[in-house]
Amino acid sequence: xxxxxxxxxxxxxxxxxxxxxxxxxxxxxxxxxxxxxxxxxxxxxxxxxxxxxxxxxxxxxxxxxxxxxxxxxxxxxxxxxxxxxxxxxxxxxxxxxxxxxxxxxxxxxxxxxxxxxxxxxxxxxxxxxxxxxxxxxxxxxxxxxxxxx
Length: 149
Hints:
Largest sheet: 9 strands, antiparallel
Radius of gyration: 16 Å
Order of helices and strands: EEEEHEEEEHEH
Helix content: 10-25%
Mean pLDDT: 81
Strand content: 35-45%
Structural class: alpha+beta
Distance between the termini: 42 Å
Shape: globular
């Protein structure tokens, strides 16, 4: 059994204001999951899950599946746009971070087989991680600034 692959990364939250802000995200992939799902954990306790193939294809060309849109932005950036009932969140990632993460997930595949061969990609999903929400308390209102201390 292969261990779960996790990587802590930074993304930039793109807002409609003049400034973007860096946010920590958790990238996670469980090789035992037959659906080949990548999870992106956001600081507010939200977890987005979608097919690994969506992230890989988005490195080369714009792609959309359900509530998730991914596209390259220049040579070094990747945009991930997440739609929910709460609104839209747009994150900018360094491509090299995602390439490194995806390369680690490839090493967990059986040699000689395509990681997504013959599989229907899972639809994107959004959940709230109870452990994060409990630690952070109630979710701040949209647009609220985090406390610094």
